[in-house]
Design brief:
Blueprint lengths: L12 E2 L9 E2 L7 E2 L2 E2 H5 L1 E4 H6 L20 H18 L3 E5 H4 L6 H22 L2 E6 L18 H20 L4 E4 L5 E2 L7 H22 L4 E4 L9 E2 L4 H10 L6 E6 H6 L4 H10 L3 E5 L18 H13 L8 E3 L10 H28 L1 H9 L6 H5 L7 H10 L11 H11 L1
Helix pairs in contact: 3-5, 5-6, 6-7, 10-11, 11-12
Length: about 425
């Protein structure tokens, strides 16, 4: 396909903050070293297949607005779509891409045909990956679009749907393994309920736990070296989804003994729907040892749904990048741009421009977060707030054998009478803003 879809655009290069070229990076310099790694290594950015090449601009009130020279109805259309996708990967120079099985090939008339189509397209992907240098950050299976999944996949009341979903995930994992994917993602798009009146919560959660356990077993059986990731989301399209947020998924993994086998893929928009700040989800996942990968996007705060807009506010991303860097990064995860252009952005160039703005915002946040860490003052402030816990008596309260009685006796004997101390929230906010 050459450059038939994007014309003469690209390749996009770093030109610095003063550049007026709309098709240049102003802050994302892939080779710039930040805390011992290049920006490309720290961010590991990926282009997603579904929003860019699978979505045609329709919404619940309007039909498609994009003119795309491919379709997903036959394999010829899938090949044309792959041509455009890898052309875009090369233009942007992002090291990774991501896909759902249904994004890249038609399902056909049966699961067997679906599997053959997926095997064929992965052969083509392997050739294009070798030619362009693009790598697979993660693959996944679409277990939510087809009507068979309207009541869930693993949690469906129909065991045949559970079985079909298991077979579909097997095929998607095989494809991901074949392409040397760094991770495999499970997102329970419809694993939840619309009403509790027709829902057996315990049964459905047990089914979901068994399903995920089988995925873990299959990973080890085929020798897949990537990380298994679960993506939390609280709602939409269902009223309530079982993978509500980091805390909920953490408890679920511990219940089924999977906390050492699975990590989390966190998305900005999903955090917002759960009424959390993105940095809350990142910080909590990191504290629990579950932070695996990130989806970079944003929601419109005036809308009550997942709008999947490109991130464009570096300052909002700084706290999240701080916690990412404090744990040493997210590799083998990365920053997947699960973002889509608006329905009115109908030019192919808009796809490129959205990614340029998004990665520039992430790069700006990365630099600010790195400056906070290198400077050391912010970390020192946080450490000073908890300095009292370094005392032997304080540490003893957290050790096995400490009791309420022994602590109460020490309070009485030492006449402990703590006085309130300021949390200095405004000062912390001011300090962070100095770096942004």
């Amino acid at each position: 396909m050459g450059k038939r879809f994007f014309g003469e655009i690209g390749p996009v290069k770093y030109e610095g903050p003063k550049s007026d070229n709309p098709f240049a990076f102003r802050h994302y310099d892939p080779e710039r070293v930040v805390l011992g790694k290049t920006m490309a290594e720290q961010l590991r950015p990926a282009v997603c297949y579904w929003h860019n090449f699978g979505w045609l601009g329709s919404d619940m009130f309007g039909s498609s607005t994009f003119d795309r020279p491919w379709n997903n109805d036959d394999m010829e259309g899938a090949r044309r779509k792959a041509d455009a996708a890898f052309e875009m990967f090369s233009i942007l120079g992002f090291p990774f891409f991501t896909f759902h099985d249904k994004d890249v090939v038609p399902e056909g008339e049966s699961l067997a045909e679906f599997g053959r189509n997926l095997a064929d397209i992965t052969d083509l992907f392997a050739e294009k990956m070798l030619a362009t240098g693009a790598k697979l950050l993660w693959g996944t299976a679409n277990l939510f679009s087809h009507p068979r999944f309207m009541a869930g996949a693993a949690t469906n009341p129909d065991p045949d749907v559970f079985a079909f979903a298991a077979a579909q995930v097997k095929n998607a994992m095989d494809a991901t393994h074949k392409l040397h994917g760094a991770n495999y993602v499970l997102w329970g798009g419809r694993e939840g309920y619309e009403t509790l009146l027709n829902t057996d919560l315990k049964r459905e959660l047990d089914q979901l736990g068994r399903f995920l356990s089988m995925v873990v077993d299959y990973k080890h059986k085929i020798g897949f070296k990537g990380v298994l990731l679960v993506e939390p989301k609280p709602q939409e399209p269902t009223k309530h989804q079982y993978d509500f947020d980091v805390a909920t998924v953490s408890g679920f993994l511990q219940r089924f003994g999977l906390e050492k086998e699975v990590k989390l893929n966190l998305e900005v928009g999903h955090a917002v729907l759960a009424h959390h700040a993105f940095e809350h989800e990142v910080a909590l996942a990191s504290a629990l040892g579950l932070l695996g990968s990130l989806d970079a996007n944003r929601n419109d705060y005036q809308s009550g749904w997942d709008t999947d807009q490109f991130p464009n506010n570096a300052a909002e991303l700084v706290p999240a990048l701080y916690f990412v860097l404090k744990q040493g990064g997210v590799a083998p995860g990365g920053f997947n741009f699960d973002s889509k252009v608006r329905r009115q952005s109908i030019d192919p160039a808009d796809l490129i421009l959205g990614h340029i703005g998004g990665i520039d915002a992430c790069a700006g946040a990365l630099l600010a977060a790195a400056a906070m860490i290198e400077d050391g003052k912010f970390d020192a402030m946080r450490e000073a707030r908890y300095a009292g816990w370094n005392a032997p008596a304080a540490q003893a309260m957290l050790q096995p054998g400490a009791t309420l009685e022994s602590i109460a006796k020490r309070v009485m004997d030492e006449k402990i009478d703590p006085k309130p101390r300021s949390g200095q929230q405004e000062f912390y906010e001011n300090v962070v803003n100095r770096y942004t």
